[in-house]
Amino acid sequence: MDTDQPAEKPRPKGIYLLPNLLTTGCLFSGFYAVVAAIDKHFAPAGMAVFVAAIFDMLDGRIARLTHTETAFGKEYDSLADLVAFGLAPAILSYQWGVVRIAEYGRAWGRFGWLAAFFFAAAGALRLARFNSRSATADKRYFEGLPIPSGAAIVAAFVWFSSEWREPGLTGLIAAFSITAAAGALMVSRFSYPSFKQLNLDRRIKFAYMLIVPLFFVLVAVDPPTMLLSIFSVYALSAPVLWAGRRLRRALRGPPAVG
Predict the structure, then answer these.
(1) pTM of the model
(2) 194-216 as b/e: b if 16+ CB within 10 A
(3) What number of CA atoms fall less than 13 Å from residue 82's CA on the CB side?
(4) What residues have CB less than 8 Å from 31, skipping those under 6 apart?
(5) 161-185 as b/e, with b when 16 or more CB fall inside 10 Å?
(6) CATH homologous superfamily for 17-195+209-248?
(7) Residue 162 near residue 96 (C-beta atoms within 8 A)
(8) Which of the listed ranges 57-71, 210-224, 232-246 does the model predict with the highest average pLDDT?
(9) Measured between alpha carbons, how far is 185 from 139 in angstroms, rounded to an integer?
């Protein structure tokens, strides 16, 4: 028996303040988004979803850097994500559009109600699938659109549209179609890059550094438009690449036999 192998350190079982405080910030931001949406303050509600995304991005990284990852933190993070990125965008979409779209008929009202619920249910399923497969999944990719990205699309669209006093039936159908489509992409099997393999310590060309301030400048000029564009491109990238691969295989035809 080889006794030179170091014993595996047991996983911490305690509750650590800093990462869970950040997770609480994510939960609070989601709760605020719900309250703001109920009070019909749609632009602040949309902003709150993005604030929740910042907290969600930080809590896991801080836990890994400080070696304070725990089973409790993982479960707490999932519950906070469900509120901030599942329920909050669904309620935001519902509050913004269902009352308006119901004026065009009861069937349209039901369509909006079901689209909002479908998004919330898809978010819960996406989180459950991620948690159940996280131990064996390829860390380079996400299976299905990540729930923060799906929430960002819905929140950015409502934030972008909050200045419309009367969006009309076309705008309302677009809002709920986007909500339902984001939910469908979350539970899809499309592969999305996770960007976890990026090495921030590696040297890069100076020209690439210009991308960072340019990104912040563009977002600062028109936050809802730019955020909606960025996350929409990310969401559409996987199905577009999948369709492109299928088309190329169809054009090449079956392999020659002989």
Answers:
(1) 0.85
(2) eeeeeeeeeeeeeeeeeeeeeee
(3) 16
(4) 83, 88
(5) bbeeeebeeeebbebbebbbbbbbb
(6) CDP-alcohol phosphotransferase transmembrane (TM) domain (1.20.120.1760)
(7) yes
(8) 232-246
(9) 19
| CB-CB contact of 132 with 193 (8 Å) | no
Instruction: Name the residue ranges covered by the structural domains of the chain.
Output: 17-195+209-248
Which residue bears the tokens 């469908």?
184
Pair of tokens at residue 188 = 């899809």
- Residue 218 corresponds to which tokens in the numbers above? 């563009």
User: Residue 90 pLDDT more than 70?
Assistant: yes
Q: Is 37 helix (H, G, I), strand (E, B) or coil?
A: helix
Query: Structure tokens of 118?
Result: 């479908």
Q: DSSP of 58-110, one letter per residue?
A: HHHHHHHHTT---HHHHHHHHHHHIIIIIIHHHHHHHHHHHHHHHTT-HHHHH
pLDDT > 90? residue 250 = no
Please give the C-alpha separations between residue 144 and each of 138, 236, 244, in angstroms, as whole numbers: 13, 11, 18
CB 2 within 8 A of CB 10: no
Q: Which residue has the tokens 């913004």?
A: 96
CA distance 157 to 229: 9
- Asked whether the beta carbons of 88 and 151 are under 8 A apart, the reply is yes
Q: How far is CA 162 from CA 94, 96, 100, 199, 233, in A?
A: 13, 8, 13, 38, 21
